[in-house]
Design a protein that fits this description.
This protein has 269 residues and is α/β, with parallel strands linked by helices. The protein contains twelve helices and eight strands. Helix 10 packs across helix 11 (237-252).
Length: 269
């Protein structure tokens, strides 16, 4: 079954809009886990717009004794320490998550919006990947669905890639572009499988576009945050996590839930 890792950034963003610790990130992480999430993802940034270093430490402590649940920390390994933010690698070294997803985002980006270009960044990434491996951390690179780039990721000894699914989500409402966009990702997935590269995916996946995307061959994990939290506003966090997990369970069981009626059903409490 494809694993569902719930990204908690948006809950932290809401908390940070006020003083104090409401909503409590740890409490909501526990709710996600109780509802069936396979893991938790966070993306600490130097400006601490959502996830704070203290969140990373608390979540690592929560998850370390939970069998079968994974902690994934995302971020730019080259972003400098800033204030109480010690840098991504310092956080990873101290917490030793199951997976570290390296992302080529800048400090002023609203959100991650492209993958690495390994024709220009391979030399700087290689020692980072080696260091993460010495800490026993699985390494995933945030990538566009370009088979040539995926081969370079394999050559760098990345364990997995996380396909940036923003373009797929953007094309989804246009039925004339939907399948062509999906085919691009399918081609990348087939190539990743052929070269022995693990496959994750994330960014703007939702209850409508996930059923088709879940049919990608070799897909191991999806990281979903924004849409899942938006859906939680209507149906509650626990129901939202279960709705996304249901799609992945249905795919594992070979059940087709890609029609509009079944998607709408998932949004009901």
């Amino acid at each position: 079954m494809i694993s569902l890792s719930v990204n908690l950034n948006k809950i932290a963003l809401l908390r940070n809009s006020r003083e104090g610790n409401y909503p409590d990130l740890l409490s909501h992480a526990k709710t996600c886990i109780a509802a069936g999430a396979h893991g938790i993802t966070v993306h600490p940034r130097p400006d601490q717009r959502h996830i704070r270093p203290s969140d990373v430490f608390e979540l690592a402590t929560l998850l370390e004794d939970m069998d079968g649940l994974e902690f994934n920390i995302e971020g730019n390994p080259f972003a400098r320490a800033q204030g109480s933010y010690p840098g991504l690698l310092a956080l990873v070294e101290e917490t030793r998550p199951d997976q570290c997803t390296l992302v080529p985002d800048s400090n002023d980006q609203l959100t991650s919006d492209h993958g690495f270009d390994l024709t220009s960044s391979a030399d700087t990434l290689e020692p980072v990947i080696e260091k993460l491996h010495t800490w026993g951390v699985r390494v995933s690179l945030f990538m566009d669905p370009d088979p040539k780039q995926l081969t370079l990721a394999r050559d760098l000894k990345a364990d997995r890639v996380e396909l940036y699914t923003g373009p797929y989500a953007q094309d989804w409402p246009d039925s004339s572009r939907r399948l062509g966009s999906f085919q691009r990702y399918r081609n990348a997935a087939v190539h990743a499988s052929e070269i022995g590269l693990g496959l994750n995916a994330g960014h703007d996946l939702n209850l409508d576009n996930l059923p088709l995307f879940a049919t990608l061959p070799g897909l191991l994990e999806v990281s979903i945050g924004h849409a899942l939290i938006v859906d939680a506003l209507a149906i509650g966090l626990e129901s939202s996590v279960r709705a996304y997990r249901h799609i992945l369970e249905a795919h594992a069981a070979g059940t087709d839930i890609g029609d509009k009626d079944s998607q709408s059903e998932q949004r009901r409490p």
